[in-house]
Known about the structure:
The protein is an alpha/beta fold. It has one domain: Rossmann fold (3-Layer(aba) Sandwich). It has seven helices and seven strands; from the N terminus they run βαβαβαβαβαβαβα. Strands 4-3-2-1-5-6-7 form a seven-stranded parallel β-sheet, with helices on both faces. α2 (47-58) links the parallel β2 and β3 (63-68). α1 (19-34) runs parallel beside α2 (47-58). The longest helix has 16 residues, at 19-34. It is globular.
Amino acid sequence: xxxxxxxxxxxxxxxxxxxxxxxxxxxxxxxxxxxxxxxxxxxxxxxxxxxxxxxxxxxxxxxxxxxxxxxxxxxxxxxxxxxxxxxxxxxxxxxxxxxxxxxxxxxxxxxxxxxxxxxxxxxxxxxxxxxxxxxxxxxxxxxxxxxxxxxxxxxxxxxxxxxxxxxxxxxxxxxxxxxxxxxxxxxxxxxxxx
Length: 194
C-alpha cells in the first residue's frame, strides 16, 4: 500500500450543474481532510472546484490550488487556500499538480477535466510517473466513458495491462482504499502485441 499524502482532484468549473454533483464534491473534500489527505486542485472559486475546496477547508484540511496567470487575471482564483501556486499556462499547471500529488481523481467535468484525466493516465502508461488514477462516478456520469474505454481495449487501442489504469468508483471510501492499494507497474517497451 502506498501512502496518499495528497490527491489531485480534477473537476468541472460550471455552476450550472445539479446539486448532487456539488454535494459529492464537498463530500470528497471533507473525507480527504478527515483522513489527513491534502487536496490539490485547479485553484478556482467556481463550480465543483469551489465545492471540493470548501469541503476540505470546512473540515480543516490542507488545500493547495494551482492556477494559471490567465485564470487569475479573470478573478476566478480562490484566495483562502493553504497554498496557491500561480503558473504560466495549462501545461505547467498539470505538471505542478502532478508533482504535488500521489494520486489523481476525476469528478464530473467537461473538456478540461477529461484533458487532465487523460494526461495523468497517459503519463502513467508512459512511465513518467507511477500514480493511480480514478473516476468518482456520481450518478452514473462516467458510465459511458468507462464503456468507451472497454471498447477501446476490445478493439486493440488500449492494451490489456493499461485498461485497469483508470479505476471507476461510486463510493469515496472504497475509492481511497483502492487508490492506496494500487501497485502501478513499470510498463515495458512499446512493442506490438501478437
